[in-house]
Amino acid sequence: MSQPIIIVHGGATIFDETTHTDILKAVRRAAHVGLCVLEKGGSAVDAVESAIWQLEETELFTAGRGACENLDGEIEVDAILMDGQRLESGAVMAVKDIIHPISLARYVLERTPVMQVAGAGATRLYNEMVSFGYRKEDEPGRTSRGVHAVGCDTVGCVALDESGRLAAGASTSGWPGKLPGRVGDSPIIGAGVYANEIASASCTGKGEQILRVVMGREAVMYVEQGLSVEDACLRVMRSIREKTSGEAGLIMLDTAGSVGLAFDTPHMPVAIARNSDVVYVTMKPSMSEIPSA
Ligand code: ASP
Question: Considering the domain boundaries, does residue 293 fall inside one?
Fold first, then answer.
């Protein structure tokens, strides 16, 4: 039996100081909800979906209800959910006008034979999901009331359940004013997110840079090669800075419940929960401050 643990992040970016209190509350709540799922026997995939759903439900991040507009003033969102045990993921890309793409990603993972669905096909799947009652939609038919965001605050999560299974996920509307149809790293398996039976990673930051190094897979590969998740995070951040202009961050877990995180932006709000408690919540996480298990 493993000790369940969950980490959530609210994006590697810069947040106005006036928002910090609400953001910390939101990541704390998401980690708490995810941990409750894990401690009631839910799977890591259940916990990641629940935690990201909570973050999508706030208007604080450029994801879910806080999604920002693309160049045409429309909302297009991306999300992914990856099950490390099955080495399978479900992802949706450039889906218009939905609040909870993470649940649609779950639907793709569990109920379809494919791993990635984009655009109008994803919308059709969303309507099918809602009409089957798999997940409900509080605002059906929302059309493009996105926020005018300055930066991008993708949300992400990694979790380990009591059976030792890992999962990872991410949800975003991408960069404000993005090219319609643009898909960043977040919903791309291996780039924004990766999980297997060894480790899981959820990345955030400049998608075009993250894609170039396939950051999530690279981070997990370092753990397979013997690095701790902490060192794997540092190593992959070094790699993205050396090969691109960087501006990224990531959170990681391994099957022992060890935590890794790193970022090179002013903020990356993070909450970590284990042992029936949210043990660490901050805008600027530091490995040396995380309480030991
Ligand atoms: N990686 C996301 C994207 O490029 C943005 C972010 O993580 O904030 O779409």
Answer: no
Q: At what angle do helices 44-57 and 101-111 cross, to 10 degrees?
A: 150
Whether 291 is in a domain gets the answer: no
Residue 30 CA to ligand 1 center (angstroms) comes to: 19
Instruction: Quote the domain boundaries for residue 41.
Output: 5-285
Contact between 10 and 284 (Cβ < 8 Å): no
Indicate yes or no: pTM above 0.85.
yes
Report the separation in Å between the CA atom of 133 and the middle of ligand 1, taken as the mean of its atom positions: 30
> How many CB atoms are located within 10 Å of the residue 96 CB?
18
In this predicted model, what pLDDT tens digit does every residue of 284-293 receive, in sequence order? 999 999 998 8
Q: What share of the chain is helix, strand, coil (3-state, %, to 5)?
A: 35, 25, 40
The residue written with tokens 């997110």 in the block is 193
Query: The domain that contains 232 carries what CATH number?
Result: 3.60.20.30
Which member of 154, 172, 204, 265 is catalytic?
Answer: 154
pLDDT in tens, 175-229: 999 999 999 999 999 999 999 999 999 999 999 999 999 999 999 999 999 999 9
What angle, rounded to 10 degrees, do the helices at 44-57 and 20-39 form?
150
The question of whether 154 is a catalytic residue gets the answer: yes
